[in-house]
């Protein structure tokens, strides 16, 4: 018989911290899979059992994956397993090289089916008084012996550890039913309970398997290119960084890599959630889990299999699942009080009901037993974790990495979103737009000569704005002129010598140094800033020759995202260190409510602090440059975190691609998660309230109480799993 997994059928007696603490340094890790551990009750039992074990430094619980990590220094691992066994649970050592493993146990459904038939016959024979009076008792005991003994054993262990979980409550209820002669009903109760928990375990498995499905996205083998041209298939975990990989059409990448040869088209939806394929070329990064939809190509691995972008995403989601969201922590506290209180009420009913209302002792005890079954907050406790896990998994599939259930649940409260400009609303790569000669009498050859001079100066500079001019010239086939005596002046531009004259390329400050700024030129510079452009001035000696408009273009998706956020009642503002006029121009183009420019990091932080004081506020940036503001915001969003260690590790929410519409997806998913949580809590409490009334009025039977209790659990699980298929609108 497979050991039962508690699933929803438990309540919390201890609360885990909101964020898991870091394991002690230099401690060894023993990873154990405990099939019966997936709720706070089992966690509490194990903490008590392992408390004081010599050498044990810390315990790390993954209730969703049913994995316990024991951090220890020279502890007796066999003693650890024995203490776990004393709680009625079995621990299996996991391979340290593997992150997740599926359970290997099987359930004996045939035995449950036979027990159900026997219990039904016992119930029918008791109703119609078929056969001898002892026939229902014999049949009931046979059914209980087939499926009920594991529940009794675990219930006894729970009571011994002073824990009131569903096993303890069900054991007391069935035992009481047998003692008052309700043989058939006791058998039906244990059969229905076992059947319901099996179905529930299967349903909960869908949420657990969502992460295992992510693991399956990266194949276990890779084709490694040898020096003689042969391709040898090796285990992905054995491929060293720097190895050449050959990826054929239709194959899925096993490792993060850099394209060496070929121009593949890749489906990166497992990482970014974007279904449109992406074209790649030599030098571009490719990621494990992507599918080659184009031609065969060669790439060089950049990370080991255990440290790919996909592996880091999975690790982050697993860590997030281990954190309790605010609603879950509240319900855990509520359940820890609710269950003992209802248990005490049931005992009081059994003792006082006959005295108060003149009913028989057996009827009073029976009503008390019904209350015991209703006492378990099964559906209530499971309603939050299964919903949060489903929401986290759905977000990961959409290319949104949420670092904890707290952020997913609280996202619906956001009222303000602040954006960094460069690389968030804009592409983060300056591009040359139009240009003009200040001498309108020049012919085409002379104009082309000016472009060549500007390109000659730009190619010798490392500034991003100069790089934009150089790229534009190269795209038009303009050959840069050779210059000498190159001098780069930080914050202003570059100067050089050309045919005995001093040529220069830079901003207004550099032009002022050469005395080339006229009132007409100053007017043009101010007008360009109003359009969100930066004018680069090409000059010779004290004369300006040409103007080049450079801008960081707005992402095509930014306006669409801002409009969608406004429709959802979100106020927006942009915070940037760029010139206020340029920031204001970008804000106008994107439709953002407020624009703040020329800000230092501490000034961004001050604005975020002021907005947080007014209401829930999020900050959207690159995860590094805006670190203070991201940390202070209620939720920090890192844009374009694909392949970025820092962004994945520091942000509360990491958007794996550069699409700001993912913010809308996150907001919709957070609101859907909150809605499902409210529905589940209302459903669980409503059913409890109805059957409490039925129990007191004598209209509820034991098997009806079990059916209602477990049925509510199944309903909230199914409702929570709907989030796995949620596809919130992106605009």
Q: Notable features of this structure?
A:
six-stranded antiparallel beta sheet; Calcium-transporting ATPase, cytoplasmic transduction domain A; 4 domains; 26 strands; alpha+beta; Rossmann fold; seven-stranded mixed beta sheet; 731 residues
List the strand order in the largest sheet. 14-26-25-24-15-22-23
Global outline = elongated
How many individual helices?
25
Helix content: 40-55%
Number of structural domains: 4
Strand content: 15-25%
Straight-line N-to-C gap:
50 Å
Biggest sheet descriptor: 7 strands, mixed
How many extended strands? 26
**Rounded radius of gyration (Å):** 34 Å
| pLDDT < 50 runs, ≥5 residues | 1-21, 96-105
Average pLDDT taken over every residue: 79
Say what oligomer this is: single chain
Structural class, by secondary structure, is alpha+beta
List the helices and strands and how they pair.
Elements: E1 28-34, H1 40-50, E2 56-62, E3 67-72, H2 77-85, E4 91-93, H3 109-127, H4 135-147, H5 149-160, H6 166-179, H7 183-215, E5 221-225, E6 231-235, E7 244-247, E8 257-261, E9 265-267, H8 269-272, E10 278-279, E11 285-286, E12 291-292, E13 297-301, H9 309-321, H10 326-357, H11 361-375, H12 378-397, E14 400-402, H13 405-410, E15 416-420, H14 421-425, E16 431-437, H15 444-458, H16 464-475, E17 484-489, E18 493-498, E19 501-506, H17 508-513, H18 519-530, E20 534-540, E21 543-551, H19 556-567, E22 571-575, H20 580-590, E23 594-596, H21 601-614, E24 617-621, H22 627-632, E25 635-638, H23 645-650, E26 653-655, H24 662-697, H25 702-721
Parallel strand pairs: 15-22, 15-24, 22-23, 24-25, 25-26
Antiparallel strand pairs: 1-3, 1-4, 2-3, 5-6, 7-13, 8-11, 8-13, 9-10, 9-12, 14-26, 16-21, 17-18, 18-19, 19-20, 20-21
Helix pairs in contact: 3-4, 3-7, 4-7, 5-6, 6-7, 6-11, 7-12, 7-25, 9-12, 10-11, 10-12, 11-24, 11-25, 12-24, 12-25, 15-16, 24-25
